[in-house]
Amino acid sequence: xxxxxxxxxxxxxxxxxxxxxxxxxxxxxxxxxxxxxxxxxxxxxxxxxxxxxxxxxxxxxxxxxxxxxxxxxxxxxxxxxxxxxxxxx
Length: 89
Known about the structure:
Layout: H1 2-24, H2 29-32, E1 36-41, E2 47-54, E3 71-72, E4 81-82, E5 84-85
Antiparallel strand pairs: 1-2, 2-5, 3-4
């Protein structure tokens, strides 16, 4: 009788551990999509600024202290990739 109970308990524990491990050790998709990027000023030949932006759209353009929209580098000489204000969770 004890062995039947132990077999069912061990089976349940094994399945519960497998389900827990699947969710506990898988990477979070929410944080994987956001990349921090230094903003570039298009009015100054795409010079890099000290403002840290992100590439995920949050409807708030990344700007420097003068209010100029900052962009990411699309090639070695052009900065046309839209960047957004960095939001800390």
